Amino acid sequence: MAQLIAKMTTLQFSDTPDTRHQVQLRTDAVYVDGKPVQVRKAAAGSFMGMLNGCTERLRAVAHGDTLYVQLRGRSVRINRVDPTRASAIGAAGGAGASHAPMPGVVVSLLVAAGQHVGKGDALLVIESMKLQMTISATLDGEVAELPLAVGQTFQRNDMLVRLRTSGDAA
Amino acid sequence: MTTIQKLFIANRAEIALRIVRTARRMGIATVVPLHSQDQFGPALAEADETVEVFGTPAVAAWLDIPGMIRAATDSGCDAIHPGYGFLSENAAFAKAVEEAGLIFVGPPAPVIELMGDKIAARRFAVTQGMPVTPSADEAEDPATFEQRARAVGFPLLVKGAAGGGGKGMQIARRAEDLANAISVARAESQRYFGDGRLFAERFVEQPRHIEVQVFGDTQGSVIHLGERECSIQRRFQKLIEESPAPKLPAGLRDRICNAAVKLAAAAKYVNAGTVECIVSPNGEFFFLEMNTRLQVEHPVTEMVTGLDLVELQLRVAQGEPLPLDQDDVQFGGHAIECRILAEDADAGFVPDTGKVLLLNMPGGPGVRFDCGVTLGAPVTADFDSMLAKLVVHGADRTLAISRMRSALAETAMLGVTINNDFLSRVLQHPAFARGDTDTGFLERHKAELAPAAFTDDERQLMLAIAASAAPDLSATCIPEPYASMGAWRN
Questions:
Q1: Where are the beta strands (DSSP E) in B178-254?
Q2: B350:A27 CB<8 A
Q3: Residue B247 in contact with residue B435, Cβ under 8 Å?
Q4: A141 touching B (Cβ < 8 Å)
Q5: Best of A11, A19, A31, A58 to mutate (most B CBs within 10 Å, chain B)
Q6: How many CB pairs under 8 A join A and B?
Q7: How many CA atoms lie within 13 A of A123 on its CB side?
Q8: ipTM, 2 decimals?
């Protein structure tokens, strides 16, 4: 081996963001957590790999730090992470904040800012691709922020509502 | 008889392209709408012309009757094909199209109106000897609706009288669930259809959804093109459709198809239509509704009959007689359609959005992929989550299932979560293979349909491939095609 200089990255599956994997690309193989894996690029977006002694075709594409991989018709989302970051991205806003599980539009607001609500109370209704979902209060408290108006659209993980308990500072 | 010269397609995505293809073969020019939020549709590149349409949110443009007619007339079209969804079952639209001097590719407005009112349609079906389930109609006497609904018996399906497409439907299993089912169904119906009027009917347990493709012409001839089974549904929306229906006795099939033809003939039906029924485990069938348009799942009928349903639609719209009689219709083999949706089926079928970064369309003998997206297309919440339809044909059902599973594995739309693997798991379930399908299938087999966890080896391989796909990492390290070494040499 003339050179084993590797390029390195840290990856995590989107469904298990707490587990990180060190991946090194060396001239002889790709090393995943130290274990060599043989891969070959067959065409743009198309790769071959070995699994239990059989050749498998995989498809993969990168979009910024998100990598999409499909194996036997099943696709996964893998994220490149900055290993210096302390932890996986947590939702901002604390326990009283609710974030959009998917992009969509606000159908109706059932409460107003400043209003007191009880845990489980319906706060607003959102819709995405014809699927309606009611966002309910996660705790007893006061509606501190209700940033969107009826008809307004939002992206995944945007904050929809934030509650504060009586003890919270504004 | 009028010959259509130029056709406006008041639709988008896969169905717009599908209509363009047939029109082009028939020598008819096509025009499709272009919207600033929908610039990646495959029909835009294939149609002869595009016309910009406007609306916020984007779907408003496709629901704007004067806007659609203006787009058609401004571009010199003499006919409008509505596709499915949007304005396709809107009687006011059909009427406005004709008043504008254009041909509406569909049934006459009064028939759309009759079948669009689900209660009037049921009453009409009864007069034609078509069985219906016991029911209660709120409009008859709103004050006693709940009481009359209770008298029908449980389980009870409560739905919007003006509804369809699975929206605004609630099942009350016990008397104590009824009040809540009524209030939810009313709220949903009000929201989706602008009409909160309700209707309750006995819910048939383990029903199979069987529908009949019918066709009528202006000379008064009505035929059927066989049945489709569409029992694999989630949230009352079809996911997998097939023809012929598995395990449907020939005698029952004939009775359902003949009843559908009789109903359509009595309604003086013209053009393509579908009579939807539910069939109980003991072989009773009940009229559900009639859809007065081309269905999403029409390709399975095309594959078993060899006919082009859009061609028949255009010919009938031109005033031509149907080119075949009932006895001329030949059925061969088995066809299955899978709807490829932008959703995470394993997380409760929650819709997903993204961008089509990699697109791989399946192919091969007996495989048809009607695709509504192109590479680079954004998948947004502005439109329906159906991105494509995968349709296969085989000499028998076993071969069709095998072809479908292979094609589903070949299908890739990376950048957005699609349901191809979930569909494949449904197809390989032993109950599906046996033809034991009813509308409760997905719920009943939920646990067995969950995906197996990836093995460590699979995860390692996917991580290795992921890193290899990152342009900044792979540039110098991964062997390119024809530059590989050792065991990988071809």
A1: 198-202, 208-216, 222-234, 237-243
A2: no
A3: yes
A4: no
A5: A58
A6: 173
A7: 32
A8: 0.86
Question: Which tokens go with B314?
Answer: 């255009």
Contacts of B215 (CB under 8 A, 6+ apart): B222, B223, B224, B225, B271, B272, B273, B309, B312, B316, B322
Q: Would you call the peptide bond into B33 cis, given omega within 30 degrees of 0 as the criterion?
A: no
Does A150 reach chain B within 8 Å, measured CB to CB? no
Of the partner residues B358, B421, B477, the one whose CB lies closest to the CB of residue A61: B358
Give which of A148, A125, A127 is closest to A135, Cα–Cα. A125
Rounded Cα–Cα distance for residues B373 and B394 (Å)? 26
Closest CB to B451 among A39, A48, A74: A74
This prediction has a pTM of 0.84
Please measure the distance between the N-terminal and C-terminal CA atoms of chain B and give it in whole angstroms: 61
For residue B251, report the phi and psi dihedrals to the nearest 5 degrees.
Answer: -65, -45
* CA pair distance B27, B51, nearest whole angstrom: 20
- CB contacts of A75 in chain B (<8 Å) are 412, 414, 417-418, 421
C-alpha to C-alpha distance for B370 and B14, rounded to whole angstroms: 6
Do the strands B49-52 and B29-34 form a parallel or antiparallel pair, or are they unpaired? Answer: parallel
Distance CA B272, CA B213 (A): 7
Query: Block means of pLDDT (10 residues each) for chain B, length 490 residues?
Result: 94 98 98 96 97 95 97 98 96 98 98 92 94 92 94 91 75 93 88 84 93 98 98 94 97 97 98 97 94 98 98 98 98 98 95 96 98 96 95 98 98 98 98 96 97 96 96 65 42
Amino acid at A11: L
Any CB–CB contact under 8 A between B360 and chain A?
yes
With an 8 Å Cβ cutoff, is B408 touching chain A? yes
Q: Do B462 and A69 touch (CB under 8 A)?
A: yes
A138 reaches B (C-beta below 8 A)? no
The Cα B463–Cα B474 span in angstroms is 13
A71 close to B (CB below 8 A): yes
Closest to A58 measured CA to CA, from A31, A81, A39, A36: A39
